């Protein structure tokens, strides 16, 4: 994918997991990368690793909590200051919250999940889109989940937030397609990242590996997904090779969301 050379891509939640894997993939394709995360230590580690592997790529880091509107406005302003444009936004930062039934769910954690997963994605689009409109070009990938397509036991706020991401994606595609901005969402199944490893610890604290193996057996492929597999899809959706896919929520889950 030659046409990612010199593109400017913002990645939120870039310090680890799916965000970091996408940063590696995009850096390998020659894009300039803006790494955004609220964990400044992991962010610096991520930058150091990328810098070593891709010494010719321009990488900047910005510490921001995506649930804070001012912090989002700031990462957009800083990116424009550094590069003069924004070609792509990978709106990826998100949390799972805790696992609990609807009636037992801690309301404060519910609100936190919504603030990060829903409002964080909204703020990202709100401040990046005007920059893309001026350029008459942009690509946005919002991270939903299979929990944005169907229900997931004991994760109501996560499911609510991810259905909202899918809905916001449709609206952004409708409202800004005329400006050359294509917006899509991805819906990963279980991809082995630190977030998912934590979830297996919660399901079976004594033996998280057993929980992982059991979960993998439900998937048609009998395995979990890998972050670099998701990164390939994200790179395509953020590139000019994607000329006409917009407003979609694309599952990347080994086919699991088709099972009854
Ligand atoms: P992860 O926990 O491994 O990494 C998430 C990164 O986002 C971390 O670096 C964290 O510091 C950062 N982050 C979290 N909240 C933030 C905030 N408010 N502001 C800035 N940075 C923040 O998680 P992951 O598995 O890589 O998940 C990334 C995204 O993919 C999330 O939106 C998640 O819901 C979604 N997702 C993941 C899976 C999966 O199987 N891993 C499946 C479906 C959806």
Automatic annotation (TrEMBL):
Keywords: Oxidoreductase. It comes from the Bacteria. The keyword Oxidoreductase applies. Pfam families: adh_short_C2 (PF13561). PROSITE patterns: ADH_SHORT. The keyword Mitochondrion does not apply. Belongs to the short-chain dehydrogenases/reductases (SDR) family. This is Oxidoreductase. The lineage of its organism: Bacteria, Pseudomonadati, Bacteroidota, Chitinophagia, Chitinophagales.
């Amino acid at each position: 994918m030659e046409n990612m050379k010199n593109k400017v891509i913002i990645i939120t939640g870039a310090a680890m997991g799916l965000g970091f894997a996408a940063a590696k993939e995009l850096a390998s394709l020659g894009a300039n990368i803006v790494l955004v995360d609220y964990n400044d230590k992991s962010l610096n580690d991520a930058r150091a690793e990328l810098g070593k592997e891709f010494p010719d790529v321009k990488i900047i880091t910005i510490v921001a909590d995506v649930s804070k509107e001012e912090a989002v406005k700031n990462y957009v302003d800083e990116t424009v200051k550094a590069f003069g444009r924004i070609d792509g936004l990978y709106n990826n930062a998100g949390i799972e919250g805790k696992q609990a039934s609807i009636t037992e769910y801690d309301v404060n954690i519910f609100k936190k999940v919504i603030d990060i997963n829903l409002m964080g994605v909204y703020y990202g689009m709100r401040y990046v889109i005007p920059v893309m409109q001026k350029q008459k070009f942009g690509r946005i990938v919002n991270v939903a989940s299979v929990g944005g397509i169907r229900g997931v036991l004991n994760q109501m706020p996560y499911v609510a937030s991810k259905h909202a991401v899918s809905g916001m994606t449709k609206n952004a595609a409708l409202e800004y397609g005329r400006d050359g901005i294509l917006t899509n969402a991805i819906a990963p199944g279980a991809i082995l990242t630190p977030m998912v490893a934590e979830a297996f610890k919660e399901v079976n604290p004594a033996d998280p590996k057993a929980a992982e193996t059991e979960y993998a057996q439900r998937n048609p492929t009998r395995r979990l997904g890998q972050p670099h597999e998701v990164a390939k899809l994200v790179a395509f959706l953020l590139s000019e090779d994607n000329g006409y896919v917009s407003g979609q929520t694309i599952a990347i889950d080994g086919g699991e969301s088709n099972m009854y």
